[in-house]
Amino acid sequence: MSSHSPVYRKVAFRLIPVLFSCYILAYIDRVNVGFAKLAMHEIPWFSDAVFATGAGIFFLGYFLFEVPGNLILHRTGARLWISRIMISWGIISTLMAFSHSVISFYIFRFLLGVAEAGFFPGIILYLTYWFPREHRAHMTAMFMTA
Question: Which of 1, 63, 77, 91 is the most exposed place for a label (fewest CB within 10 A)?
């Protein structure tokens, strides 16, 4: 099959918009606590230090579980694992509304990082399953414009 085959174009038109939307949701999910911070200053236990520590704890969970998450993705399949990532982070984001203490805020931020870990590299790996080498850079750029 030629690398300029209409099959790749059809796959791109079906796959990239979905992945694009997922990446936008991941970004919104990652930064939504920044918007919530404006209203959270009314909560007695919430301070700038708590917010900064929570932001750092998110990336700690993200960093620690990114590689293991991709190893699991490679074994279980991208559709199943990326779906698990999105469902998990949706549930944990919802649970963050019920944070009632500094510790619960930190736990939910860490779990959110764990849940989101592997999403971006998983999508990049997923693109390698669908597109040959000469198309990957273009498809990755289209995905990352989100």
Answer: 1
